[in-house]
Amino acid sequence: MNPAARMRFRRITVMLAALWGFAGLFAFLDAVVLSAGYVPPFDTANAAGHMAVSWVTRQAKEAGVQQGDRVLEIDGVPALRWFREARWRQMQPDHPNRYAMEDRSGRRLELDLLPVPAAAGPALGVPVNAATLLVASTYLALGLLVWMLRRGREESWAFSLFCSAMAGQLFTSFETYRQPLGYERALLSLAFVGAATFQLFTTYPFAPAWVERRGWLRPLVWGIAAVSVPLVLLEPTGWIPPLQIQTAAFFFAIGVALISIGALAVERRRRRADEDADRADVMLFGTFVSFVPVLLLLLTEIFLQTGLPVYLALLWFVVFPVCVAYGIVRKQLFDIRHLARSSAAYGAATLAITGLYALLVASADALVKHFDVNALSPRFSMVFLFFAVLAFNPIRSRVQALVDRLFDREQGRYRQTVREISEAMVSMLSIKEIVERIVRALTEAMGVERSMVLLLAEDERTLRPEAFGGDWHIDVGAFALPMDHPLCKYLWMRRQEVSRKDVDEEPDTELRAVCLEVFERLDVALLVPVLFGVDLLGVIAVGRKASGDRFSPDDRQLLLTLANQSSIAIENAKAFDEIAKLNETLEARVEERTRELRETQNLLLQSEKMRTLGQLVAGVAHELNNPIGFVHANLKLLEEYVDKLAAAQRSGEDTGRAREAIAKLLSRSREGTDRVKKIVADLRTFSRMDQAELQEADLNAEIDRTLTLMEPRCKNCIQVERDFGELPRVRCHAGQLNQVFMNLLMNACDAIGDKGHIWVRTRTADGRVRLEFQDDGPGIPDALRDRVFEPFFTTKPVGQGTGLGLSLSHGIVERHGGRIWCESEPGAGTRFVIELPVAPQAAS
Questions:
Q1: Is pLDDT of 243 > 70?
Q2: What residue ranges in 18-93 does DSSP mark as E strands?
Q3: Residues 74-83: what's their mean pLDDT?
Q4: What's the angle, vertex CA 660, arms to CA 658 and CA 662, rounded to 5?
Q5: What CATH number is given to the structural domain containing 723?
Q6: Which of 44, 351, 424, 571 has its CA 20 to 30 A from that of 252?
Q7: ∠825-826-831 over CA atoms, to 5°?
């Protein structure tokens, strides 16, 4: 059934159910107000499947009729048939009727009794009729009101059907046989009350999984109720024993009601952390207050057959629709569990104090009687009562304070949290600190699984995460919520927290779909708007509680308070930022001068790098000439073998040797070109500036690349020993670090001279990378070792060094958040050690 057809079906059924209720209203008014004539001298109750006397006149009582007696026949006609055929309308004041009765012992009585005027019924007849009119009309009004306020919702439809069926039942439960077709309508209403109860309790506030899986259950229950229609019509034919349909309808309604209540209680226990658990509590509270007393009275009547007018208990049913209507219409509910616990504690404390007070007064009276102080007893009693009241008042106050502390502990904790957050935010002038404080408060005070604070971005068109905590199954940094998203408008218009249940109840299907999509994507329970005046500054997204409990009204109030406090703090921080921007002009010149210095430093760095590259040109050129010359020679041989191959193919000779030679020449030529390609790539990588952003680099590979470029310088004279450990990838400016490595290696080669060793070691220690460059040269004198990193300091002859290499290397390492130092002894060689963090800060 599509949504339009379903809505049409619900409107029709609600209209038919309301007509059924109003028909009962008019029939009840006709029986109470317009009917006159005479009736039997007793009243009956049929709640337990038998017709028993519930009220008797003095005349009938003197004749032997007692309350609880069963009425079998009237004028030789079965009592049920006599009432259904409205033969009471033919009763005459001077003509007695013959009654066949059965008392509780089973003894049959036959009595002739005169009828009494209809107005001479029970003394409570008028108040009961007025109460019936009020309660049944309340059912009708609440059902229609909830349907109009929550039109289209399945629970409002089920509640409207239930209220109409109950109204019909209430109207026909009083003055049943004086109404047109009163008995038949009472049986049908009773059956449909059972079906409507099952529909309501399995729809609101939860739909049990076992009912959802068996979609035929609800139609089956309605079908069983519908079977009562032909059975009621067939009963007068005699095919069905009298009162059997009434008994079956009664037990059907009671059984289905008990099953429905049990299903709701089980589902409430299973979904105790669900947001609708509050509504289930309210519904169960109304059920307990309304249904349990009535069920107990009905069961008592079934087994004891007291003849009491148990139908009066139906008037107490008014509590149930009020509770359900409140739960459906009201968005935020009070915490009924807290109320019940605190009320029980107050009641127990009051009962204990009252009992103690009564015991004290009784003891005082006993003492007065024991010592025979009759003359003083009135005066003594007054004085004693006065002092007893004075003594018990502090006890009462302390007990009340104890109960308040016991049941107000959670509220006190929330108030303390709000106060601490308010005090902390007053002194915060950083938006980052504010949002992080909110996330920490949600985690510590409320114990939520995840939380996120989204604030308006600089473009003022999107909300982006500023702080978050807990486990998220999405990339939080990539999430953005456009300001023109319907959910932002929804939050801005409601100006309060929004839960998944609130969105579920939204009548606009398109709005509900897009809002639920955000809830599903974030997997959160609540969204709280951060509002300042009429502006939406951000949204606080809150996940479920780690404890599994649902959010109470106090939790929601705390979230709203957090949002209000944070909006004020955010506006204060923005104002502070605006003031800080006014000072930027004062620092503009400093920034400009700093920028010039940076540019000069970059030029010096590049100049030193190019100077170093210049020293390598000859060696690199030689390295390039070797493979290029080899490839050139191979090309000549390749040309000869191609001619031989062509000649062999024309003459039909074997071409295997020629092909094999050509393949070898191509393979060797490819090796030469690969060597050229690698040298060129290393040169290009080494000389890159890449100062714009940090990149992850393998420092072992970078050092190895630098050593490759150094091979012409070291070949046949200096032996390089590599001792590389396993290093993590380091965020750095790889080109700058290559310059450092090249400077250290070039200095080592210059210090060694014609022959020696260089050791390069890499290790990790305490989350940092350690690089060592050691040579077996002459070492550095103590007097000069502390000056090696000074700008323009050099021990090389004039024209061979600028004195900037180690100075620039020192600056590069420091900008990467690391440090470099020199360890050297004269005659024992030199070792330069570099330590770098795995993720250094970007160079300023």
A1: no
A2: 38-39, 42-45, 52-56, 70-74, 77-78
A3: 82
A4: 70
A5: 3.30.565.10
A6: 44
A7: 45
